[in-house]
From TrEMBL:
Pfam families: CitMHS (PF03600). Belongs to the CitM (TC 2.A.11) transporter family. Residues 2-308 form the Citrate transporter-like domain. The keyword Heme does not apply. InterPro entries: Arsenical_pump_ArsB, Cit_transptr-like_dom. The chain crosses the membrane at residues 31-50, 62-81, 109-126, 146-169, 190-209, 215-234, 246-265, 285-308, 320-343, 363-382. Its main location: membrane. This is SLC13 family permease. It is found in: Cell membrane. Keywords: Cell membrane, Membrane, Transmembrane, Transmembrane helix, Transport. It comes from Roseibium porphyridii.
Amino acid sequence: MIMTFGAIFLLITGTISPSEALKAIDWNVIAYLFGVFAISHALFASGISEKVSNWICADSRSIPQILLFFILFVTAVSAVLTNDAAAAIGTPIAIAIAASLNIAASLPLIALCVSVTVGSMFSPVGNPQNLLIVADGHFNNAVGTFLEWLAVPALLSLGFTLLWFWYCFRKAPTGDAPSNVTPDEQNMRQWPALLATGLLCALVITDSLAHETDWLPDLPLGALSLIAAVPLFVFSSHRVQLIKEVDWHTLIFFVSMFIVTGAVLKSGALQEWLSPWHDQLGDPLLVTSISFFGSQVFSNVPLVEIYLNLLEGHETATLMLLSGISTLAGNLFILSAASNVIIVQQAEKHGVTPFQFWQFTVYVLPVTAFSLIVCYAWVAFVRNAAG
């Protein structure tokens, strides 16, 4: 609402014209998010998410095993369907874990926040800021580039996340566990949701490989997402329900955010503020500092959008460091990443009390510090080895 009111105010005052606002919106990102949000709801409404949670929380599994399978699952979903979609899909599973272990839902929900954020580092479609960087960087093989530069710090960070939350889960007091979350009516067929998910995975991977061979036309990720969602609307009799359950709040947030950042760039205020460091915006320490602390003020997606417009040279190492640090910045405060807010909203939607502001920060701070150090060190290592 705040972002939307800001965009409306800028339009009313003429700070940015309607035509400039439309041009500032990255419709490729909006289209991609629409498709994956439709797929994520279909997975939940058809009961697939419930089946996954039942498998993860099987009676024979220990706490480390439950955590391991949970982290691996949401990491895979985050890497393929973006962290925001993984947040929506993973919330009922995190609540199911809390019910299974007889603990408050806040701790599994915080673990979900961390896992979807770190997991999104693996892929060029893992989060919206990665989508912006891919669109700006023009990589020949976006998937390979992200794996080369960010897979190692992501794996190490996930390993630390597993160990840290295993310790936290063991110390968590029992009781106050929520009830398990299931769809009100599992009236959607499962196969269209599974087909859409598999189609999106295949399209993203094929599109990335096609960049190197030039044997297929280059399609924007937004188009791939919409194509993958077609089976949901063609073969499902609940098309209206699917459209209603799309996370419109987040889509409106991103549309408004693009308008606000477009107005900021047009005003020249940020360029003037950063002018003393204009020639140093590619410096690793400056990239790290601005992307991390700036993400706490602007949130990571608008920060990356603005930074890319100010950056003159688009060296791969700089773009990968910007991607990694701005992503990990989401693991400091609830408002640092849209996926954190989505998890809070989804938990409340399911009637579960989520975590508190400072409770979140206390639990994620060790993971944040470790992952930032590892990410910076690895990108510096690969940069030196390549140079």
